[in-house]
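Reopening this one. Same input as before:
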Amino acid sequence: MPDGTEVHLFTITNNNEISAGIITKGATLNSFTCPDKDGNMGDIIMGFDTIDYHITSGTYTGQVIGQYANRLCGGKFSVNGTEYNVTKNENGITCLHGGGEYNSAIWNAIIVDDDAVEFSYRSPDGAEGFPGNVDVKVTYVLTDHNELEIHY
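Same output, byte for byte:
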C-alpha cells in the first residue's frame, strides 16, 4: 500500500484443483480458477492483476462492503430518535456501501485449512459516522463440490 502496509494473497484449493485467491485489502475475492466446458482452466473473476488497480479503481469489485449495502439517501439515518450523519462518498449526496471503510481496510487473516481462510476486521465506533464497534468475520471455503462458500 502507499503507506507501506503489506497486502497478502491467500489461495485456497480443493481436491479438484479448483482455486480461489483472496487478498487482505477489503477481504477481496480476486480470482477463481476452474475449468470451462472443455476442461481448460481459467480465472473467471473480474479482478485485478496488481494491488495498484485495487487502490485506484474506485470500484467494489470482489470486496467486502459495509456497514450498509446500497445507498443511504442524504448520508444520514435515525435510530431511536438519534440522527447519524455518515460519509457521503457518492457524489457528496449519498453514503454508498458504508462509506468505503471495509473495502479499503487491510483485514487480518487466519488460514483455517487448505480449502478455507477467515478474515476479520474491527470497525470502531464512529467510523464513517456509524455508531458502535462492529467485529466482522468473513470465511471463504472452497468445497470439493466446486462451490465457493462465503460465510459472514
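So the earlier flakiness isn't reproducible anymore. For the record, The helical segments are 51-56, 101-104.
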